[in-house]
Design goal:
The protein has 442 residues and is α+β, with helices and mostly antiparallel strands. The chain is built from 16 helices and 16 strands. It folds into two domains: 244 residues, BirA Bifunctional Protein, domain 2, CATH 3.30.930.10; 95 residues, Anticodon-binding domain (Rossmann fold, 3-Layer(aba) Sandwich), CATH 3.40.50. Helix 2 packs antiparallel against helix 6, helix 3 packs across helix 5 and helix 6 runs parallel beside helix 10. Bound molecules: histidyl-adenosine monophosphate.
């Protein structure tokens, strides 16, 4: 053997793993995702939201400008790279909102009327992976663009509540806050800076830096040693003017009228810079440190900031992995789906030819059918095929052996309810299977 072919062999043998924090969706979990996606489709349809899909890659500027330069996401977590062929600065989207707004502006979607939109797909953030926190994760999000009133803030919150009920989630609570308008935040910011400057010695390194760039984000610190200091800091809610307060009060009144309990959390500031007025998060204690399953709020300044004609907007997004994890804890995941309705067994040769034709005939009639295919090319015993049929979840087996074929028959076996097995003529098999499936319990 030559050196070169030895080397090729060694390269082939080396296992290549997936990227840390980026997960495969395995067949065993596919039904859960399909179930969640179906519930989301029904939910958005019930409220008149339309689907919009943006690419996974955007110009880096979309997120720098949209999310804000001084945010953890833009400063530390984005997968950004230069396109080697033309030097463009690109980024794997870390969230959906800025990209959706880019698309809405570019395609002039707000030209005639406001829009209710939704999206779903993978997002990318270079965070330290742990339970419920991944580098590739999936979001479902809704965005209502062109609506200014508190009614739409509440509509999107009602959608969330309906979704948690639909999915059978336990222990989810809603926290809300108002971030007011830019000039109110500016006054609060001045008061905040004065307060933190007075207590500068107690600020950690991150907060020292944020004191100059984005002091509001200091309130978001997870550092337990700073919690006392944060408790005593001036609260933004005390700086809100009449209009902002009116909006916030109207949101609370509408939530109350709809029996949606919520807690006002004056320290809820969110990690993205585009918000104003209402912000909110749904949180659970059931998932450990990563307990925020969804979050969002109003982002009236964003469309103009991204180069569009000024228009109000609000929305939220949820982490699909976290919601599925909470469904698991809540015991509300659906049972795994059967792979097929019918499993067809045979003994190779002529019986295979007939079995294949029959399997196609069943599929044409809308019956999900798996035809046994021996992994090594040789036919296997009926006993081992029957085991496979059983674990496929099929309700019925069609068995075609040489004896059956000689009589122009197949055996139809009920794999679930009765276990009954009977001979059926091949030309009446489709009808017999249909009849058995219709009569079988779910
Ligand atoms: P966000 O709070 O950054 O908001 O993310 C929304 C949700 O995505 C979080 O509540 C969490 O469930 C999930 N999530 C975030 N990072 C990860 C991660 N590394 N692994 C797993 N799940 C994660 C936004 O992205 C805004 N675009 C929401 C929005 C829409 N605001 C207005 N409209």
């Amino acid at each position: 053997m030559t050196d070169q072919s030895n080397q090729t062999k060694a390269q082939k043998a080396q296992k290549i793993n997936g990227v840390r924090g980026m997960n495969d969706l395995l067949p065993a979990d596919a039904a859960q995702w399909a179930h969640l996606e179906q519930v989301l489709r029904d939910l958005t349809r019930a409220y008149g939201y339309e689907f919009l899909r943006t690419p996974i890659v955007e110009a880096t500027a979309v997120f720098q400008r949209g999310i804000g330069e001084v945010t953890d996401i833009v400063e530390k977590e984005m997968y950004s790279f230069e396109d080697r062929l033309n030097g463009e600065q690109l980024t794997l989207r870390p969230e959906g909102t800025a990209a959706l707004v880019r698309s809405v502006i570019e395609n002039n979607l707000l030209y005639e009327a406001p829009k209710r939109l939704w999206y779903t797909g993978p997002m990318f953030r270079h965070e330290r992976p742990q339970r419920g926190r991944y580098r590739q994760f999936h979001q479902f999000g809704i965005e209502a663009l062109g609506f200014a009133g508190p009614d739409i803030d509440v509509e999107i919150i009602l959608m969330g509540q309906r979704l948690w009920d639909e999915l059978g989630l336990i222990g989810v609570r809603l926290e809300i806050n108002s971030l007011g308008q830019a000039h109110e935040r500016a006054e609060h910011r001045t008061a905040l800076v004065t307060y933190f400057e007075k207590h500068q010695a107690q600020l950690d390194e991150d907060s020292q830096r944020r004191l100059l760039s984005n002091p509001l984000r200091i309130l978001d610190t997870k550092n337990p040693e700073m919690q006392r200091l944060i408790e005593g800091a001036p609260k933004l809610l005390d700086f809100l003017g009449d209009e902002s307060l009116q909006h916030f009060n109207a949101v609370q009144a509408l939530l109350k009228a709809n029996n949606i309990p919520c807690k006002i959390n004056p320290r809820l500031v969110r990690g993205l810079d585009y918000y104003n007025l209402t912000v909110f998060e749904w949180i659970t204690d059931e998932l450990g440190a990563q307990g925020t399953i969804a979050g969002g709020g109003r982002y009236d300044p964003l469309i103009e900031r991204m180069g569009g004609k000024a228009a109000p907007a609000c929305g939220w997004a949820m982490g699909m992995e976290r919601v599925l994890e909470l469904m698991k804890v809540s015991n509300s995941l659906p049972a795994p789906l059967a792979q097929c309705d019918v499993y067809v067994l045979h003994q190779g040769g002529e019986t295979l030819t007939t079995a294949m034709i029959i399997a196609e005939r069943l599929r044409s009639a809308g019956i999900d059918t798996i035809l046994f295919c021996p992994p090594d090319g040789d036919s296997a015993s009926f006993k081992s095929q029957m085991k496979k049929a059983d674990s496929s979840g099929a309700a019925f087996a069609v068995i075609i052996g040489p004896d059956e074929l000689a009589r122009n028959e197949a055996q139809l076996k009920d794999l679930r309810a009765s276990g009954e097995q009977k001979a059926v003529p091949l030309d009446g098999l489709l009808e017999a299977v249909m009849e058995a499936i219709v009569g079988a319990p779910e």
